[in-house]
Prior knowledge:
The protein is an alpha/beta fold and about 270 residues long. The protein has helices at about 15-30, 40-50, 60-75, 100-125, 150-170, 185-195, 205-210, 230-240; strands spanning about 10, 30-35, 55, 80-85, 130-135, 175-180, 250-255.
Amino acid sequence: MSRLAGKVAIVTGGARGTGAGIVEAFVEAGATVIIADVLDDRGQVTAVATNSAYRHLDVTDEAAWIALVDHVRSVHGRLDVLVNNAAILHLQALVDTSVEDFDRVLRVNTIGPFLGIKACLPLLIDSGGGSIVNIGSVDSISGTPCTSAYTSSKFALRGLTKVVAIEHGKHNIRCNIVCPGGGSAEMVMEAFARTGAAFPAGEAARREVSVDSGAKVPPPDRPIARRGTAADFAMAAVYFASDESSFCSGTELVIDGGFHSGQFVDVPGLWMRQ
Ligand SMILES: NC(=O)c1ccc[n+]([C@@H]2O[C@H](COP(=O)([O-])OP(=O)(O)OC[C@H]3O[C@@H](n4cnc5c(N)ncnc54)[C@H](O)[C@@H]3O)[C@@H](O)[C@H]2O)c1
């Protein structure tokens, strides 16, 4: 496949999880990929495994963004795609969430992409245009309990997507957002470990682990009764990064097994058991 042949892409948070899946799919599609993450050991391993490059980057550090873009300009001479995938999750009831935790989440999940877009725009423009792919969440569309910071950050990222699309269409730059209904269990378990006592019953964490490990699968809560995989979300990023989506900007693609289609309730005897 060569859907991304000749394109140079930065993928933040590409060391593991959905980001690593995006890196793999991009390389498979012919792109040259630079993983930018804070998980250096894991990032190096993923880079070797996927035939991509790794650079340390804290997405909240504006100077580091500028240095990364300078590096990409000097080594590759161009940039075609920026994937803002890096994020953190904080699970806690709103009344227990400190302003420090709220701020920490917004810094990574919203200000990080803002800084990345700002730093990458000059090189994207010099390259004749490009595609910015933000990775949001179903929490960019609706809320989930105990995610006041995370849901706020992901709604804001969806808003940022629209503004970038409007302001930079004139530069042949498109900006879209993928909204996964699922991702790596590591993100959820790390958040749960941080504030587990405040999270109601730990149901979401149990579900993440049981489904990812292939153990007992809980009752379906969505029409497509399985957990989304990195590959499900990565192919949406490939589409938005490729020229196939050249008329597509400022839009969101929700990939959640139909979770947001409407009420998923049984009407006994009429359809669920048919
Ligand atoms: N895990 C889920 O259930 C879920 C659900 C919906 C959407 N998402 C979204 O999918 C995307 C990928 O998440 P994931 O599920 O693969 O989780 P993950 O925790 O496995 O991956 C996130 C990556 O971001 C990196 N990162 C965190 N802070 C960073 C920083 N300051 N600078 C640079 N890199 C940083 C991490 O090191 C990690 O490699 C995220 O945007 C997340 O919000 C995840």
